[in-house]
Design brief:
It contains 5 helices and 14 strands. With about 220 residues, the protein is mostly beta strands. The strands form 3 sheets. It has a 6-stranded antiparallel barrel with strand order 1-2-5-4-3-6. Strands 7-8-11-10-9-12 form a 6-stranded antiparallel beta barrel. A two-stranded antiparallel ribbon has the order 13-14.
Length: about 220
């Protein structure tokens, strides 16, 4: 589990294809002393397991499913990545509950700046748009952000990026058309699943059924 607060920008040292997918060797200067084999590390929002740790870098095995569902499959040597270590029980929960499970690949539609404040509009799939609400939480490339606005028909939402976040995450490298890893707030999915069941059996989730329950 993570919080979506990026602690370091790492750099991909090398990418090694293998039968299981790809080995990603990632340079880390700040967090490497805290990483041990079997530790979970969020790499651009995708939870990965450290399978090897050296003095200045660690290795993760990105399997085929991860490469297909996230942007990790497009990483090349020299690319920067957002890094966060797993949450300790004693840590402050500064962002929101982030699992590191990528739900969708979003596309940046526009980037507008007002000084050093950036407004980024992103488009996602119809399946994931229903979990995104104004002033709710969203994770983009492992960064916990607040949804500023929602355009439901066009499947577009907007986030406002403060100067500190822009300068200290890989968002600074993104541009119109960039693909980013999206993780929606898991709470929405749990609520949806609970609403599907009644008296230990599935109930149709419809407008009429919701109204009968007072929604």
């Amino acid at each position: 589990m993570f919080t979506g607060l990026v602690k370091e920008i790492g750099k991909v040292k090398s990418v090694i294809p293998n039968k299981e997918g790809k080995l990603l060797i990632i340079e880390s200067k700040e967090l490497i002393s805290e990483i041990e084999i079997d530790d979970s590390v969020s790499v651009n929002g995708a939870c990965q397991t450290a399978v090897k740790v050296d003095v200045d870098c660690f290795t993760v095995q990105a399997v085929h499913m991860t490469l297909e569902k996230s942007s990790l499959g497009t990483l090349r040597a020299g690319d920067e990545v957002n890094l966060e270590l797993a949450l300790r029980a004693s840590d402050r929960l500064g962002g929101h509950i982030v699992q590191g499970h990528v739900n969708d690949l979003g596309t940046i539609v526009t980037i507008d700046n007002r000084g050093d404040n950036y407004l980024v509009r992103l488009q996602v799939s119809k399946e994931q748009m229903k979990y995104i609400v104004k002033e709710g939480s969203i994770t983009i490339d492992g960064i916990s952000l607040t949804v500023a606005d929602v355009e439901e028909e066009s499947r577009i939402f907007t986030v406002s990026i403060i100067p500190h976040t822009w300068k200290n995450t890989v968002l600074r490298n993104r541009y119109t058309g960039s693909k980013v890893n999206i993780e929606v707030d898991i709470l929405g999915k749990y609520i949806e699943n609970l609403l599907k069941y009644k008296d230990n059996g599935p109930a149709p989730l419809s407008d009429a059924w919701l109204k009968s329950k007072g929604y």
